[in-house]
Structures are given as structure tokens and as C-alpha cells.
Amino acid sequence: MVDEASKINHDNHLLLDQPCLRLPYELLRKNFRSAHFQFEKESTFVKTLLKETANGSLNGKTSPQDVVKNLDQMLAKMRGLKRKLTTYAEEENRLYRQIDARVAHLHELASVSTVDDVKYEAWSRQRLDRLLVDYMLRHGYNSSAISLADDKAMRDLVDIDTFVVMSKIRKSLEGGSVQEALAWCSENKKELRRMQSSLEFMLRSQQFIEMIRANSQPEIEAINYARKFIQPFHDTYPEEVKQLSGLLAYRPGTEPATYASLYSASRWQKLADKFVEEYLKLLGLPMVPLLHIALSSGLSALKTPACHSARSQGQGGVAIKNKSSSAAAAAQNGSNDTTTEPSLSSQPRQHHGTASLTTRVCPICSTELNALARNVRYAHHGKSRLLEHDLMLLPNGRVYGKARLDEYAAKSGLESGRVKDLVTGEVFDAAEMRKVFVT
Amino acid sequence: MDSSKLDSLLEDLSSVHKLPRLLAAADDVDKIIELLSTAREHVAEKLDPHTTSLTMTKLQNPIKTAFEKVNDDLKAASASHKKVGKSLDKYFPLKPLPTENDAMANQVPLINRAIAMHLLREGQFSVAEAFIQEAQADSPHERSDDFDHPMDESVEDAGAARSTTPMLSNDDDYDLSSLHSKELQEKFAEMYTILQELKARNLLPAIEWARANSAELEARGSNLEFELSKLQFVWLFKGPGVNRLPDDQHNGWAGALAYARQHFDRFQERHVREIQQLASAMVFAPNLPESPYKSIFSIEGAFGDVAASFTREFCSLLGLSAESPLYLAVTAGALALPQLMKYMLATRAKGTEWTTAHELPFETPLPESMLYHSIFVCPVSKEQTTDANPPMVIPCGHMLARETLQKLCKGTRFKCPYCPSEGQLKDARQIIL
């Protein structure tokens, strides 16, 4: 039987992996732009100075001593350029190495055609590890991310540096400092302008607000700052600029809501969020962790109405956390086991004597994901999909496949002609069973 | 079979390391430095205006050429980047991911918990430790990620089948401190130790564990303890030549027999037939490969099999699935994502909204291996059965959803839509699949 759904459509399977190849490319370009900018700057300087010096020396205005001085200056610039270009070249090498590693990683998938191939599992596990590192980095759990990446020897497959820089600046904003973010803005001035980003204006405004907050009277310092850094934004953000100037009149602890909100400490968190948004946007990265996207889609695809059903908890559900019922279930199973720690036993009890034989515990029913999946939709199915055949109805209303009932009866050492409910453990006469048909 | 875009992409990108790089530009700056240094030496040596102006005039063109060279290098490096970009655009065009209405945004504590458990069950103990520490440090001042686009709570709540209690009141049940990560870690450390021993073909720790948990395993209908003991018997039976254990009375034919005498008693009742087989097999001892019992004594793969059963049972007793749910969910997520995106694209174009709150409005086919519950779709209403609309069996044995049955009813009687028989509503039974 060919399971259509287990075939891998390679062109459609890598939606989550787009940033994996896109980011190194974006970084290559960004790195190049910086290199090119340095080159333009230093070469223009040297070319101009060289011409001036040559002319000056020709018409006798520049002494040989000054020529030497100028040449030294040019040499210093060029040695600096050499150093910087070398650094950019090293970064470029690193990025090409990343691309190579990622291409090799995707190559492994290209050779697999179905999800049942064992090679697919290995690949998909590595993808999970990548998504986990992405998630950790985006939340600023940097040591965990680095530790996982190193454990799995996959540094070239994940983007630690990119996110470490981001979380450093984010944390500095959360801690009430704009310097790091402003430096980043000036590094990426052109791109931010193209994106029509308001980030720099927001940062400048905050700096201005802090200056006023720090001093008891409107200082010449703050006014000068505003002239220099706020005024240029007047045409773009006229309303906001007007409001800011009002701060010179309304001190911290002021009544009018508009001004009070400008003094609010929550603005720092907003700034941090805004920065993260612009940072991700600039690099073409998704706004939310890839793991979120995978989980939203995956939890729904796996979820069935049974996973949070009150009724069929026997299917391995841990949805109901009723200690007395689980204790009863345990007693019913004749289990006097007291070795399990109480905290652990409170949840999994329902599984004892339940998911018997070879049924597998459903991932949505498993403790890890059950609560997380509670509020997502369950999968849509156009037709029945049954795990078992030859369904038999027991007198208690539960339905099982005949093969599994027989196997369980044998394993439980029942006399012939008797069957045992796989969930409740009740024993019935086989004659009491009825066949059930699914059309 | 036509080759996929992925193949073309990978082929294109596999040669990028040969493309010109920035390093050439850095190297060619040396030429400028060299020219400038030489000129400086000349000028500094004489410090005479004539030589100086001559040197400086002669310097102009070579410097210009050298700068042009560096500029060309930069252009070449940039062309390389553009080539990469072109391949990406052609064979891997950017499809924006669905990031609006991120349903997971306010679930960070639960996601963290799932990740911590995943790391523990995978035996990544040091990563788990670092993660739990960082995640816990992060949680007190929980950031409101959805500040700008608050989640539509009503829609989300409607999706909960039986969420009478709001999520928050259960919060301490779900955060990392309730994870008892130390205990979980100890449990999984125990599992890994036993698996390690199994890998080294030492069954004894696994047998010991199975014996300690025999009541629960039996209740699950698991034969793990017997399977392990049986394999131990066979393993000893093979003798020192195969098992490399000391060649003494505890090994080989005699050792196996002694082991059986000592341990098989407790299995007598349930596995009498298999034990008889083992005993009979001993008769064939000198010539086992030709005997009808050779399959029992072939241990190829047997250690892998018991290791898999052991992992499954161990996790089950903890209430956990044998495979990492996080792994399964993410894999299923990648498989279902194309459908989700297709649907979102279509509905965005039409401006329609998702209508069914409980159920996805489109199919996300998953392979058989990812099916964990039997799904019953009522053949009449085409609806999946739920708690509110459960499956029913009518006297002729056919299954229908309850709402369908209610609609079919004329008074208290109905006719089966699939066979000629008729029934009474009171004879229909609600079932649990």
C-alpha cells in the first residue's frame, strides 16, 4: 500500500527552512555593503589627498616634509582599510562556509523520498534541533542555544551571532539604555530609511525624555539636543515632535495623559519590541520563532477530538487530573506500586493498564503537549481512518479490534472464550461481543 | 522523474565556494600600500622638492590603477553574492510564513515546559539544565508579546472543548517549577543507563527494572520482563564464544539451564508454551541451526527490539509517549504547513475568515505512522464524532454520529441508511472508539 501522505514533496517541505539559506545571503550582502562603504570612504580620502599633495608639491606650496606627513596619513588609512577588508573577508568566508554546510544539510533531505525512511527521521531531528536553537536565541536563552548547538555540532546550521547581537541590544533597551540601539541604527541608516523605520526617532525621543526627567528644570542641554536630533524629524512626525516639545512645560508626574504616557517606564519595553521587529525585518527573518509556526500547524494536524475528550480518557489522555480517579484506576489495575514519586504519579496514572499492548501514546495526549494543544483546532478528516479492523463492541460500550482483544486475552492468560477490556480491565464473555461496521 | 527545484538549487549553490570573494580586495590593497610606501621612502630620502613632485606625479596613475583593481575585486565579490541571490529567487522563492495571529505567542511557559521535557527525554541533560535556568529567569517579568495585536480570546476559548477553567488559574501546574525536572532527569538518566547496558548486551539492569515494575507492566499487558529473561536465557545458551562472558558454570548450556530454573518459575503460568519450546530446543543443542527452533535462538535484532520495547514501556509508565511529542509535532507541522499556507493565501484573497472554531477548515494529510487515534467520520453527515456528537452503534452493527441518528429518526424508529434493517432509538448504543 502506498501511503500518499508519507511522500515528501521536496519543493514544499522546506518552508520552515527558508531563513536557513536566506539569512546567510542577506548577511553576505550586508557585509559587502559595509566593506564597500569603508572602501569608498577611505579611497576617496586617499585619492583626494594624493591629488592635493601632488599639486601642492608641483606648485611648491607643499614642502617635501609635508608630503611625507601626508603620505604617512594615506598609508595609515590604507593599512586600516586592509585590516577592515580582511575582517569583512573573514566574515564572508564564514558565511560561505555556512551556506556550504546548509546546502549539505538540505542535500540529505533531497535524497529521501518518504517520511518513513529512517534517514528522514535523522534529518527531521536535526531540523527540530535547529528550530529549538532559533527559539532559544529569540528568547535570549543564549547559553542554552550555544550548548545545544555545540552538543549537536551544528554551529554552521544556526545563527547564533545574529541573535546574540540582537538580544544584547534588546536587553540594553530593556535596561534603559539607547546607546547600543542608536549605534545599530547608524550602522544600518540606509536600510532603515528605505524601510521608513521610526526606530531612530523613537530612540532619540526617549533620550530627550530621559534628559528632561533627569533634570529638575528644562536645561539648555535638552533643548540643544532637541534642536540637533529631534528637529530633523519634524517633517516626518510633526505631531510627535510637537508633543515632545510640550514636555519642556509638563514635568514628570504630570497630569495630562498624553504627557504622562511619554514619561511611562513601559516605553522601554515598547522600544525593545520595536527594535526586535526592525532588526528581524531588516534581515528578512520571520517575526516569530519558527518553532511557533511549526507547532501551530503540527499540533492541529495531529490533534483529534479524542485528545481532550472527557470521555475517552482511556486513550491515553492525561487531560483529566483527578487524583481520586487515577488512584482508583491504579487500584483497579492491582498495582500497589509506591516506588514512583508522588509528583510524577499524579499525572501518568491513567496510562497504567490503558495504552496496553502496542498502542502508542499519542503525542498530543502526552504530558508534554496536552495543555499546549488544548486551544488549537483539531485536524479535519474527510473520511474515517481506523487504526484497527474487525471492530468488536464490548458490553461496556468500548470498541476494539478483534486482533488486539485476542492478543490481550492471551497475554493476560485468560481462559478461552473470555476477553478483557484494554482500558478498564473488565473481563467479558466473548459471546457478549458484537461486530461493528464502519461504512 | 523530473528533478525538483531543490536539486537545481543545491546544484547551483554547491559551487558558490569557487566564486570570487572579498579576500581578493583585501589582498590588492597591499599594492596601494606598497606604492605609497615606496613613494614615501623616495621622498623622505632626499626631501628635495624636485624629486618629491616627480615622485608624486608618477604616483598618480599607478595608484589610480591599483584602486580600480580593488574596486573590480569588490564588484566581482558582489557579483558572486548576486549569483547566490538569483539562485535563491529562482529555485527557492521566498514564501512568507504565516506569522500573524501567532497562537503560540502567549504560550511561552507551556512551550518552555515541552522543550525542557524533550531535552530531558533525549538525554540532553546539560542543555536541559541551562535551558531550565534561563527560562525560569525569564518568566517572572513575562513580556507581553501580543501588546500590539492582542489575541482574540473569544475565538481561542471557543476552541477548547472542555476548558471551563481559564488557563491562567492552572498556571502553576504548567510552569517549569512544576516539571520536577530533577526527578524527570533522574528517571531519564536511569533509562539511558539501562539502554547503554543493553547496547553493550548486558540485559541484567533492564531485567531488574522490569521486575521492579512487573505489576504495572503486567497490567499493561506487557511481556517485557519475560522477553528480557528469555533473551538472557538464549544469550547464556550461546556460550562464551558468542557472549564473551566468563566460561564457567554460569554460562553456556548449563548456565542457561540454571538461569531458567531460577527465574522461569514466575512465568510458568502465562508463558508455559514458550518455556516448553525453550526446553525442547535444548535437546537440539548441538545442531540448533537446523532445528525447528532456530528462530527462537536467532538473536539478530533481538537486542534492538527489546531496547525499543523497554523505551516504550519506560516512557509509558511515566505517562509519556515513546517518541518525543515535540519531535512528532514539529515534523507533522512541517508536513502540514503547505496546506495551511495554501488555505491562508486563498482566504486572504477572498477576504473570508476561518469559520469552524473547533476544527481546521482544510485537510492536512499525515502519513499512517502519525495516526494515533481511530478517526470516525459519520458517513452521512461527514462530520467527525466528538464528545458533543459521539459515535453510536445501531442494532445492525453500523456506526453513525448521534446527530445523524437523531435526524434520521421518525418518532422513536429509524431505518439504517446502509442496510434494510430498522431500529429503535433506545437500542442504539453510544460507543467509545
The helix/strand class of chain A is mainly alpha
* Multimeric organization: heterodimer
End-to-end Cα distance of chain B: 41 Å
Helix content of chain B: 55-70%
Report what the structure shows.
The complex is a heterodimer of chains A (439) and B (433). By secondary structure, chain A is mainly alpha-helical. Chain A has 4 domains: 150 residues; 118 residues, no CATH class; 83 residues, no CATH class; 45 residues, no CATH class. Chain A has 17 helices and 6 strands. In chain A, a hairpin with a 6-residue loop joins β4 and β5. About 10% of the residues of chain A have low confidence. Chain B is mainly alpha-helical. Among the domains of chain B are: 75 residues; 139 residues, no CATH class; 61 residues, Zinc/RING finger domain, C3HC4 (zinc finger) (Herpes Virus-1, 2-Layer Sandwich), CATH 3.30.40.10. In chain B, strands 3-2-6 form a 3-stranded antiparallel sheet. In chain B, strands 4-5 form a two-stranded antiparallel sheet. Chain B is flat and about 115 Å long. About 8% of the residues of chain B have low confidence. The interface between A and B is large, with 181 and 172 residues.
Q: How would you briefly describe this protein structure?
A:
With 439 residues, chain A is mainly alpha-helical.
